[in-house]
Design goal:
Order of helices and strands: HEHHEHEHEHEHEHEEHHHEEHEEEH
Strand content: 15-25%
Number of helices: 13
Helix content: 25-40%
Family: Belongs to the class-II pyridoxal-phosphate-dependent aminotransferase family. Histidinol-phosphate aminotransferase subfamily.
Structural class: alpha/beta
Strand order of the largest sheet: 2-8-7-6-5-3-4
GO molecular function, one term: pyridoxal phosphate binding
Largest sheet: 7 strands, mixed
Radius of gyration: 21 Å
CATH class of the largest domain: Alpha Beta
Number of strands: 13
CATH topology of the largest domain: Aspartate Aminotransferase, domain 2
Subunit structure: Homodimer.
Protein name: Histidinol-phosphate aminotransferase
CATH architecture of the largest domain: 3-Layer(aba) Sandwich
CATH superfamily of the largest domain: Type I PLP-dependent aspartate aminotransferase-like (Major domain)
Bound molecules: pyridoxal-5'-phosphate
EC number: 2.6.1.9
Distance between the termini: 72 Å
Length: 378
């Protein structure tokens, strides 16, 4: 009577083709808690105004028993005001992860192709496969999205192109003119999703290209998140802006109550506290420069930093100290960083920019490893 060979429900083969997302670690092999420099979280925490919202006592009638605002109205209005966008062209999500997945689900399916760069965000491959679409990974150049290669990979089956800008896990970005060139080279019926999870870490003048494209064209969706510079990863809030027909499609398939009440309130308070955002950006820019300088000093040991515009640095190990050795030594020293062999980066560690003293300790640990292993090849 049963239709499957095993006589039990069988997941679709394209679902079994998915490698589940591996989150950054926060403890060592022995379970010892580590300082977490593995998930690109904000080392300064979150805005005090947001914390006050999260900690506010919640009465029964207005609190947890009531469904949240299904349309995140106040939050969308505040985001529209901050970024000079039309609130009707904004949708909020359970993290931007939800919106990245919905973008594929709404516009691609079996037989369609979803294009993205090698060494970009692991969610794009999952988002494509879970809709039975075909992920198409395109070679990057110097750990950076290669616009010509992306355009060359577009076929008549391409429905969605992802660009993470700045990119995770490499930290690299492409300049506004390159983003424009990518968009201009795409057929008008291909959706370009510009994932700006780290957009706020760029200097303000570079933050607007995605929004401008999303405003001017019918085939651009820009996603942002409260998980990174806003320091609200635990609350799971993302948002996106694009043309009305794109937002309409996402609204049809998103969870109807996809952002919690506490999340909406905390995000709203965070939007109003741009001083915290500026402070976080300044901390990141200064500490990243200091950390890159410390890494560059290990150049004669084959260790170097990929230029980063984000809140982390991809450190390459091409000398006698191997990435895995460094990963273990940092674990011993109390630090969790990200090793990504499954993303084709076995010789690299992605290290989140943390507090000043933690970056000093990480650099010192790597320096000590180099010293232990001899004089390098200088
Ligand atoms: C962290 C990250 C996200 C966002 O995740 P949320 O679901 O909003 O927490 C999206 N894209 C990239 C490239 C990221 O690194």
């Amino acid at each position: 009577m049963t239709k499957t060979a095993t006589g039990r429900p069988e997941p679709k083969p394209y679902i079994l083709g998915i490698h589940a997302y591996v989150p950054g670690k926060s403890s060592g092999k022995d379970g010892k808690p580590l300082v977490k420099l593995s998930a690109n979280e904000n080392p300064l925490g979150s805005s005090i105004a947001a914390m006050e919202q999260l900690e506010a006592p919640r009465g029964f009638s207005t609190g947890a028993a009531a469904y949240p605002d299904p349309d995140s109205k106040e939050l969308r209005a505040a985001l529209a005001k901050l970024h000079q966008l039309d609130e009707a062209r904004i949708v909020c999500g359970t993290g931007s992860d939800e919106l990245l997945n919905l973008a594929v689900q709404a516009f691609a399916g079996a037989g369609d192709e979803v294009v993205f760069s090698r060494h970009s965000f692991a969610v794009y491959d999952i988002a494509a496969r879970r809709c039975a679409a075909t992920p198409v990974e395109v070679d990057d150049r110097d750990f950076t999205a290669d616009v010509d290669a992306l355009l060359a990979s577009v076929t008549e089956r391409t429905r969605v192109v992802f660009l993470a800008n700045p990119n995770n896990p490499t930290g690299t970005w492409i300049a506004p003119e390159e983003v424009e060139r990518l968009h201009a080279g795409l057929p008008k019926d291909v959706l370009l999703v510009i994932d700006e999870a780290y957009g706020e870490y760029l200097a303000p003048e570079f933050q607007v290209i995605g929004f401008d494209l999303a405003d001017a064209h019918d085939n651009v969706l820009v996603t942002r998140t409260f998980s990174k510079i806003y320091g609200l990863a635990a609350e799971r809030i993302g948002w996106a802006t694009g043309a009305p027909h794109i937002i309409d499609a996402l609204n049809r398939i998103r969870g109807p109550f996809n952002v919690t009440t506490s999340g909406q309130k905390a995000a709203l308070a965070s939007v109003d506290d741009q001083d915290f955002v500026r402070m976080s950006r300044e901390h990141n820019t200064a500490e990243r420069a200091r950390f890159v300088e410390a890494i560059t000093a290990l150049g004669n040991h084959g260790i170097c930093a990929v230029p980063s515009e984000a809140n982390f640095v991809l450190v390459r190990f091409e000398g006698e100290v191997q990435a895995e050795t460094a990963l273990n030594a940092l674990g011993e020293a109390g630090y969790a960083v990200r090793h990504l062999p499954s993303q084709g980066l076995p010789d690299c560690l992605r290290i989140t920019i943390g507090k000043s003293e933690d970056m000093d300790a990480v650099a010192a640990c790597l320096r000590a490893l180099c010293d232990d292993l001899g004089g390098g090849r200088a």
